[in-house]
Amino acid sequence: MVCAAVGLQPRFSFMLPWTLACLTAQGLQALALHAFGRNPRGWVLPCLGADFLLAVAFGWLAVPLWRTGLPAGAAGGALLLAGSVMTALMGAKGSRLAFAVTATPHLGYLFAAPILAANHEDVGVKAFLIGSGLMVLVTSLVFGWSRQTLLAEREARAAAEIRREQAVAADAAKSAFVAMVSHELRTPLSAILAGAGELARGAGGPAKAKAELIADAGVMMRALLNDLLDLSKIEAGRMTVESIDFAPRTLICDTLRFWRAEARDKGLALRFTGGRRLPRWIKGDPVRLRQVLNNLLSNAIKFTPEGRVCIELSMAPRVEGGLMLTLAVTDTGPGLGPEQLARLFTAYDQLGADTARTFGGTGLGLAISRDLSRLMGGDLSAVSAEGRGARFVLTLPALEGEEPPTPEPLDAPADGFSDAPAVLVVDDHEINRRTLAQVLEAFGLDVTVAADGETALLLASQTRFDAILMDVNMPGLDGLDTTRRLRAEGLNRLTPVVAVTGAVAEGDIVACQAAGMQDFVEKPFEVTALYAVLLRVLGDEEAA
């Protein structure tokens, strides 16, 4: 519009054909770029040709501007060409060919315009041509420097991408390693917990106390192992939370009751306020909420030498509906400085060697607690000052829930099974096979063991079993493939199969069900949980 308005003046009539030529060249360039987007290899040269044509058309304006004889016209032509060269310099992005195609016409006009439009004897023209030559030199140097910078930047990006891929691969390897270590550690841990439980039930006096000590140590080991697994799942984005109805006051009171003895041993007061205003039932993940509370109370009691630990509960309505629960755990410990607060939720960080040496632990509890809080839609924060204790604040959204149906009571494991059902135990670890066999035989079951999937299939082709306990992760033929083959044909095509596995994430359970398994027992298993599963599957078998 500006060029058309100026072109209406007789002295600047050349603006109208110049505008038309530029618009035509830009249209051809747009068509070439559109085709290049569909077929990059076949349209490189046409795109460069369109760029060259546009540069020729655009730079031509400098010649008639110089011929006007006006000082402003000559200056405008020179500025137009200089600006076009700078644009070509940036647009080439380090490509010599692209720079040559787009900058050469403008540099050519820079020399040609004053020669065609002025007196050749004019000293000013000679000075301008010398300056133009220097500009070509400087432009070439600038292009060389920018090209080196762009190439270095591309190499840095490529190196960063390689490092990112290596980091992703390292994370995947770490997750696989954690999963493998978990599987291997759960094997002896199952035996420790099951054996300690059996000893505690059958012994008395000092022997019972020792058995309970072993069981407590096993539970502690399982908690540390679960922390490692949870962190690995969170980092891999595979951690999920559930939403079920539960009684929050009961959960909090049970958690406090668990820690009350340890607080009393240290001479600490353990207080809970605000619980009376809690709704009786809410929806959420009680397991993960209990895990966060356990971590907060454990830390508060561990780092408080004297005084008290308080849990304060408050609630506020949410605009989206439901409530926002705020649970604050406050202690009278030594407190934290600004630097410690900044590192507080960093995994594996225990605020110094003295902390790890004095109090132990893995440094994972608070990092996992914050991640779990955010997965549940809330958050976990901390405020503190040195010498004034610490205050951890958990915020959590909650919808009103309903009282779930009361589950049917289970018989005690000591009652056993009177009709001696036949059970096949499939596990590649001898310790697991021996542990399960001892527990199942104590239930009154007739137990057969298999060390791998192939042996299990052979035994299943000869004997009809009432239930099969199947390890999932086995070398060679794993538990999933073994179950699929069992379901295909044979005497045990309809026999209930129970997965005995440490991988109990939602995706893992879905995979087990898809393979044909009816239920699962988590490693390291608890005797009562194993017995409950056997009651379900063997009861279904008898009904069938």
From TrEMBL:
The modification 4-aspartylphosphate is found at residue 471. It catalyses: ATP + protein L-histidine = ADP + protein N-phospho-L-histidine. It comes from the Bacteria. Residues 422-538 form the Response regulatory domain. It holds the Pfam family HATPase_c. Keywords: Kinase, Membrane, Phosphoprotein, Transferase, Transmembrane, Transmembrane helix, Two-component regulatory system. InterPro entries: CheY-like_superfamily, HATPase_C_sf, HATPase_dom, His_kinase_dom, HisK_dim/P_dom, HisK_dim/P_sf, Sig_transdc_His_kin-like_C, Sig_transdc_resp-reg_receiver. SMART domains: HATPase_c (SM00387), HisKA (SM00388), REC (SM00448). The keyword Chloroplast does not apply. CDD domains: HATPase_EvgS-ArcB-TorS-like (cd16922), HisKA (cd00082), REC_hyHK_CKI1_RcsC-like (cd17546). SUPFAM superfamilies: ATPase domain of HSP90 chaperone/DNA topoisomerase II/histidine kinase, CheY-like, Homodimeric domain of signal transducing histidine kinase. This is histidine kinase. It comes from Caulobacter radicis. The lineage of its organism: Bacteria, Pseudomonadati, Pseudomonadota, Alphaproteobacteria, Caulobacterales.
